[in-house]
Amino acid sequence: MLLEFRTKNFKSFQDELVFSMTPAPKQKGLDYSVFKEKVGIKNYNSLSSAVIYGPNASGKTNIIGAMDTLKHIVLRGHIRNADTKSRSNPAASQLELIPNKGDTNNTPVDFSIKFIDSGYLFEYKLSLDLGVFLDDEYKRSVLSETFYVNEKLVFSRGKELEHLEISVIKKYSSMVNNKEAKVAKKLAQNNLNSEELFLMNGFKTMFSSKLVSIINDWFEDKFLVFCRADALQVLPSFSKKDTILVDKTVNDAAVLFGVNSNALGYLTPNEDDEPKLFSVFNEKTVVHAETFESYGTVRFVNMFPIVLRALLTGGTLVIDEFDASIHPMALMNIISIFHSDDYNKHKAQLIFNTHNPIFLNSNLFRRDEIKFVERDEETSRSTHYSLSDFGTSGEKGVRNGSDYMANYFVNQYGAIKNIDFTPVIEKLLEDRGVK
User: Fold this and answer.
1) Is 312 within the bounds of a domain?
2) Which burial class, exposed, middle or buried, applies to 186 when counting CB atoms under 10 A from its CB (0-12, 13-18, 19+)?
3) Fewer CB atoms near the end CB (10 Å): N or C, the chain?
4) Can you tell me which residues the record assigns to a coiled coil (predicted)?
């Protein structure tokens, strides 16, 4: 369960971005959107969903891209480039694409994430020296790295391992006594690598592989981040040639959505190929789904298993352009499932960006669930804020029951841009002598 994500100097977010999934104070209403989780003797609340608005190129996707980049860095365990380039988020594999392109001062790139899993509150912070934009030859280094469990500092490192308190994680530590821990700390210090994360290397190997396994599994299996609508797909893990794999749950949903064939299934034409989605008419007749079904149907079938995974595992699903090519009624129903105590048993979260104003609805989302991003035209810097930041009083106050959609389109909340293409058309007609 995600509580907070932060980043700084990530692309257009030169100033610190704080993306909070913690309910804003004093906000009431739509209590089904608030999860409650107890860790030790403390209670924590989180939002079940968030929707992000803003004009094109404002930085909405950069929020999702930053989350995805941190996820990949953690899972790799280092800040060297990945061997395989990411098509959906190149910055996750080519870190020279991360720094703000206008910064020439080698400003550090910062990440921070706070989440709850397996009964523990984890907080992990990274500060990285990645050089300047497009400098792929720069010698990168981890400037600082800190790790907290249940709000207690476990370790911090800079150039050296500055703090290490194993007693905080005694249940998951492989250390027998303090003497053994001191020897291991010295060994870890001598093997500290400036390009590697201590959490995923020395700490994992010497102090607590079990705890790091929980964190690794959360990033890999429960932090489901998709930076592009066309990348929203998780292929089944099978490669048996000429065998159709049909998921009954997904197909039942596809029938409700409006599939045109008898069924949809995955087929591996050759053992070395990835499974591909096919429309199934009978045992002998199948065709590529993309040539027979609508784009919206194919996208829904690619998306729905990921929605199911989040619901079954209590994952945090983060999607760019959630509403692309899918009817609003289907999207509304998925959102209502995430908001339902009856169906969202494991406290899964849904975060997405959109241009569709239909979600600007006080009966659907709380003010703290509605997020905005806008970019300054002069500095090209993005800023992020929530509808709840406006408060409830004064000229720009936002009250429960307000017409959020109408107010957004009259620019009461910002994060909207008036676009007029007529001067371009007039110039074109003029150049061609059209009167």
Assistant:
1) no
2) exposed
3) C
4) none
Where does residue 20 rank: exposed (0-12), middle (13-18), buried (19+ CB within 10 A)?
buried
Tokens of 279: 């429309």
Give the CATH number, domain containing residue 208. 3.40.50
E strand segments, 25-180:
34-39, 42-47, 49-53, 109-117, 120-129, 141-149, 152-157, 161-164
CA-to-CA separations, 102 to 99, 133, 379, in angstroms, rounded: 9, 8, 8
**186 in the same domain as 64:** yes
Residues 237 and 215 in one domain: no
* pLDDT tens-place string over residues 255-312: 788 777 777 878 777 666 777 787 888 767 778 777 788 888 888 888 888 999 999 9
Number of domains forming the structure of the chain = 2
For tokens 């790139």, name the residue. 109
Say if strands 223-226 and 244-245 run parallel, antiparallel, or are unpaired: unpaired
CA distances, 276 to each of 221, 245, 256, 271 (Å): 22, 10, 22, 12
Other beta carbons within 10 Å of 239: 13
Domain range for 408:
1-228+320-435
Does residue 209 lie in a domain region? yes
Measure the CA–CA gap between 183 and 186, rounded to whole angstroms.
5
Identify whether the C-beta of residue 111 lies closer than 8 Å to the C-beta of residue 70: yes
H helices present in 159-269, as ranges: 178-190, 202-206, 209-217, 248-257
Q: Is 255 in the same domain as 143?
A: no
Closest listed residue to residue 57, CA positions, set 406, 350, 421, 377 = 377
Query: Beta-carbon neighbour count of residue 24 at 10 Å?
Result: 16
pLDDT digits (tens, 9 = 90+) for 368-413: 999 999 999 888 899 999 999 987 666 667 777 788 999 999 888 9
Query: Does 309 reside within a domain?
Result: no
